[in-house]
Structure formats: C-alpha cells, structure tokens
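Q: I'm writing up a methods section and want to include an example of the input and output format. Could you take the sequence below and give the corresponding predicted structure tokens, formatted cleanly so I can copy it straight into the document?
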Amino acid sequence: MSSDEGGGVSAGLGAGSAGRGLWVEEPARRRRMPDSVRTSAVRAVLIVSVTLTQATITFFLTLTGSWLALPMGLGAIAGTIVATWGVLDVWITRQTWNQRYGVLSEPSSTARSRRKEARRPARAARAPAAGRIPREDGPLAASGRYSAR
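A: Here is the clean output for your methods example:
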C-alpha cells in the first residue's frame, strides 16, 4: 500500500492541517464566574432540574389517577419554594461578590493631581503663621515635642 492510498495515520488530515495540533485553545467569550457564584449557580441548577422532574412526574401521576399524585404534588410545591430560594441565592451571592471584589479602585494620575491641589490650601491653613510664638505653658508643653525651638 502506498502513501497516496489513504492507509497511513495522516490519511484523515487535510493538506492544510499538517502544523495544527489536536488541541487548540480558544479565548473565552466571557470571564469565568467567581467560585462562590459558580457553586451557588450549580446548586440552583440541580435544585431546579430536580423540581422540574418532580413536577413532570406529578403531572403524569395525576393523569393516571395514582395515589402518589398528592404526596408528589406537595413535594413539587416544596421544591418550587426551594428552587426559588436557590435562584435568589445565586443573585444575592453575585451581588455580594461584586460589592466586595468587583471594583478595583485605582486613582488615575488626574485624580491624584486634583487631590494634591485640593490639599494645598488646607495644608497652608494648618501651617503656623510665620510671626507666631509657640506657647510654652500649653497642654502639650509637658511632652517636650511642642516646645519653643
């Protein structure tokens, strides 16, 4: 069998795919959810899927007139309440995460210069006047830090 008969390992590969590997990384479309949010989302999906399955079984049991329809119906109602809590848990966990870690506060250079300009007059107002003589008998004179020099 020759190489053009198609018996080799590369028979299924096209001519242009000689350099392409088996696994190709593609960039993610969206950022990954934080772990706490993802955990609550998985929990909510599992609860909702079990509740929907339970509601479907309840519907079919009701159609057949089975005695299990009443307990399953009560369970489906309880499952709906728990599923609502699960979905609200995802929403609250996401909001909490965004409030705690979502905003990176980094002042820009313009914000920094504005703050510096705003502090200048306040610093000048706090600075002692040039002709002022410090008191030696004030409440802080005993510490020795504020004595006349």
